[in-house]
Amino acid sequence: MEGYHGQPEKTAEVLESDGWFHTGDIGELSPDGYLRITDRKKDLIKTSGGKYVAPAEIEGRFKAVCPFVSNILVHGADRNFCSALIALDEPAILGWAKEHGMAGRSYEDVVAAAETRELVDGYVRRLNEGLQRWQTIKKFRLLPRDLDVEHGELTPSLKLKRPVVERTYKNLIEEMYEGALEA
What predicted TM-score, i.e. pTM, was given to this entire model? Predict the structure, then answer.
């Protein structure tokens, strides 16, 4: 690429004088020499302690650990710890609920139950074991419904619209940080 046509300022933002093109991706090299894209630079969050966190990586790890999660949003920008909003997969959690004495209860009731919170807490603790201290999820809230395209929280390709979810559930996010010391 030689640059953006007729946009020298934009070209200067992404193209170095030696021709190196900055894509905005964050990656890591595997031991066998392959590049793995792990996140987008614009998606990084910086905690109030100055640590950078790749929320998409943590969200992906949680989905690999917890069989009941449908969607998760990790939050922590300008905060002194990371938190998460978690939406559960309705058929999966209702199946679990049926096996644990909550047959016939609604999704909202099951998600609000202490047993469900305890179940998810176990998966959050398991996730945290593999993270750096500043990446760990200190608090989480279970959402009363799954995130969806109809409410504008997901794109048609089911990607999370982080700003929309954070606005929609601002009260839950603020609740997790009540009384937290600002760093």
Answer: 0.77
